[in-house]
Amino acid sequence: MSTPMEQFIKEMQDFLQPDKVYIMDGSEEEAKALIKIAQEEKINDTPILSELNGDIFPNSYYHRSNSNDVARTEHLTFVCTPTKEEAGPNNNWMSPNEAKDKMNGLMKGCMKGRTMYVIPFLMGNPESKYAKNCIEVSDSVYVALSMRIMTKVGKAATERIGNSSDFFKGIHSVGDINPDRRFIMHFPQENCVMSYGSGYGGNALLGKKCYALRIASYLGQKEGWLAEHMIIIGVEAPDGKITYFLGAFPSACGKTNLALLQPVFPGYKVWTLGDDIAWINVGEDGQLYAINPEAGMFGVAPGTGENTNPMMIATLKNDKFFPTLFTNTSIDNSNNSPWWEGLSKEIPSDMTDWQGNKYDASLGKPAAHANSRFTVSIHNSPTLSKEYDNPKGVPISGIIFGGRRETTIPLVYESKDWNSGVFTASIIGSETTAAMIGGSVGTVRRDPMAMLPFCGYNMGDYFKHWLEIGKKVKNPPKIFMVNWFRKDENGKFMWPGFRDNSRVIKWMIDRIEGKAGAKETEIGLMPESLELDGLNISKETMDILLSVNKDDWKKEVGMIEEFYAKFGDKIPAELTAQLNDLKKKIGI
Ligand code: SAT
Ligand code: MN
Questions:
Q1: Which residues contact 319 (CB under 8 A, 6 or more apart)?
Q2: N or C: which terminal CB in the chain sees fewer CB atoms within 10 Å?
């Protein structure tokens, strides 16, 4: 009798018809062999991976994708639930039958002449009751190697799966990388994702957004937990006490910088547990606990430099574990190293740009793609927390939400209680960025909990689920909203950001410990003061950063109402009450 895992592999072999099947064991030798294959296999005369200068970034490889395949494609991403209402207005919907017909048509026999990599992987520590078993099949050796960095691939997963039929099924093929034949279909009820036509991270590394957020959020609703688009950090104070925070920000909002922050205060230290995804459970003691289901970081390269994120540079230069991949950066030909805008002030004089052409700075275009990425093991991070892999997770004392807003949203405010925190998170807005295709850069889009593209079911039901979780938590974390991106009338950032954000985090810790005061405002609690020693910022600027402009908020309420209206009566009464309360306070 074959096991459910063997049956799945056989079924996929019959369906996709690869020439070869390779089942990953996760070993070091395997990684070497796969890298060799990736160096030899070419697409349009370009090897899938080429080795970079190990003196600059040790153990690192370069990948250039098709130029039509550089970001997630939200408009081609579907949640295929039996009814449209279950998927909600926040998702593209297709009926499971129609979606399967479409995908079967595209994928039947699509691996002819290719190798099917079977990638058994675990999200979370095998010892953890919160961990999940998964298998992805893919015809991309880049995906196989990336998954090996991003999750726990191989033996541990195969063993944990054992005879069980309870595992996620990810079915992926790059196909012919044609955007007209590209779909990412989610089947939450079947614990399955089918993805065709893209090799890009969020479309192809199915453990990431597809499983660990969209499918997992659906499972979380059923099973009583939360799958969130959040970093996890532990902030150590001089007395050694560590306070654990979660943080949710829309893509490319400084989330990764916060995950590896170096506080400005002596004696304070940020320990990194996760940079993108958190699975959150209510423990037996009624406390919220979070684990990072991932094992690597898939970060945006541009803007990452010694001065903006020195710890990430140190991570990328560390070769203790796993090779590091760079995708769609440019190449400095003088020394065969990856380069991107923000890595150094000087622009190297002889570069190949992300599309493989000689870089001509006079054209004024960036050399690296704005969404070029690195894929690196979290174990390479010098700030990795000792608790990173704790099967129980870490106890959460604060949740930080944020967005990128030029106006309206103050530097920081604290919600009075869980329900008002859920309301605050539900109204996050952020100016759009280069990480997504299908939105125009620079307009404000509502992105509740930074989950709009990742919530695998109706967002109205998701808000309700958040409120339900609050009822189960005995000692709820404090919920904060931040905005590092306020601009003045000349378009200049008002807050320095980066390391100075630790000044705001310090206030949060003091609030959690009951050591700092706060003033009540129309939208929540705000600092009476922040520790600003050594910072050149005027009192007038701080007053604006820490104030509520009622006219701005009146406009904001209009946008919130418009957004809420999309969900009709799915918006929980608690949130409508919060909104009405806000309207009263700002004089509507
Ligand atoms: O979707 S990815 O995980 O590839 C990148 C992102 O956060 O947008
Ligand atoms: Mn993300």
A1: 54, 58, 59, 380
A2: N
